[in-house]
Amino acid sequence: RASAARAQAFLASRGATVNRLLSAVDCGKQALAMEEATETYGMLAYSYGRLAGITKERKYFEEALAIAEKGLNFDPTSDLIYRAMGYAEFDLRPKFEKTEPDLQTILGYYDKSIEYNPSDSNAYTWKALIYAKFGQGEKAGKSTKRAVERSPKMQGWECWPYGLTYFVVRDFQNMLKFSKKGANCEEFAAIAAYEMGQKEASLQLFDEYVKGYKKKYKEDYTFDVLKNRKHFLVEKENEEFLRRLKVLYDAWASIHQS
After folding, report:
1. CA distance 7 to 219
2. What are the tens digits of pLDDT across the range 218-239?
3. Alpha carbons within 13 A on the beta-carbon side of 233
């Protein structure tokens, strides 16, 4: 029953996002029919990629690659299209073609994005996430520093890559700092606070995370929710993350489930 409730909530949320993306695709295609524009190609490549990731439908992955190729033929200096290609190689191709992520190919697209728009933070943020996923903490930290230099206020979503980055290097002070600035990163902030000896604050942050989960999925939170979730492509980092999260969960459960 709990799994069914979670699935129902997820499908409702996914459906709304899919509809927004499909609407964006329709608008983009209409705009291209009237006039080619670099921004339109970039938006379409990104939207198709997001649709592929959410719906798990291969046709959207192929559309993302096709529109990106057309866009780069029109404007080979489009930083947004290179970022869309990086996402396709990192998150989509391994799923649809059952291959391992090619780190150098992925980074090559983000480096191209930086080459053509060096003042933008997004490509650096993605590089931080990718390096962190591969367990390369030092390089992830350098990319994070460059991203923050370009966008010190953050947009919200960066708490995830920055949180993973600082976990890999076990810099819990910065992990806490950046996780608290973003959206939906309470579990990262809770782990960092717990590791720094701030037990009361960490349990409060974790409780906020659990309440958010219950509100979204209409069911109680259990540790089984995260058991199979892969935060890293390096298994030892997954195991270490899960170990620390289990310690935190047990401390929270001893208070709230007694």
Report:
1. 11
2. 888 888 877 777 899 999 999 9
3. 17
pLDDT in tens, 114-143: 999 999 999 999 999 999 999 999 999 999
The encoded tokens of residue 54 equal 């959410």
86 pLDDT tier (thresholds 50, 70, 90): very high
pTM of the model: 0.89
pLDDT of residue 5: 45
Written as one string, the DSSP assignment of the chain is -HHHHHHHHHHHHHHHHHHHHHHHHHHHHHHHHH---HHHHHHHHHHHHHHHHHH--HHHHHHHHHHHHHHHHH-TT-HHHHHHHHHIIIIIHHHHH-----HHHHHHHHHHHHHH-TT-SHHHHHHHHHHHHTT-HHHHHHHHHHHHHH-TT--STTHHHHHHHHHHTT-HHHHHHHHTTSSS-HHHHHHHHHHTT-HHHHHHHHHHHHHHHHHHHSS---THHHHT----SSHHHHHHHHHHHHHHHHHHHHHH--
